[in-house]
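Working notes for the structural subgroup meeting. M.R. asked for a predicted model of this chain before we commit to crystallization trials. I am recording the input and output together here so anyone reviewing the notebook later can reproduce the run.

Input as submitted:
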Amino acid sequence: MDLITYDRIKFLHPKIRKEVRELYDKANKELPQFVRLRFAYTLRTIEEQNKIFAQGRTVLFDKNGKRLGKVTNAKGGQSIHNYGLAFDYVILLDKDKNGTFETANFETDDNWMKVVEIFKANNYHWGGDWGFKDPPHIEKTFGLTWRELKQKLDSGDYFEEVIDGKKYKYVNI
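Returned structure, recorded in token form:
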């Protein structure tokens, strides 16, 4: 299993944290040898969301002068990541079977869909089913839209949890 992903799972909303860990473990057991599932992103704070939203819009270049493209269409509060109810994932392949992993291509690697099937069977939604495709994205919103989640946060309908010495807000679900 992937310790980086285990560390990222702890930032998910407590309502899904245990289930996601179990489904993550299940997916890894069902993937072929030398293939690993990794979560690239889980919780993203509203401040972090605003920062990546600015990329390619108001922040046009990185520190080395390289032109930045747009990363997301969601401003802070508009992403399900902001509520710890979503994760983005990648499939890592050890093609040479030497412990060196590289990211698999979504369009050519069937392992991506194995992960999707496991999560969809447990009431998660996949970004690849949307009108605007977001294949690495999986979420569970309990029927709430980002607007409803933001309303809960803005109205104080949340609790706080300290993780690694930092305080995070999770809406009541």
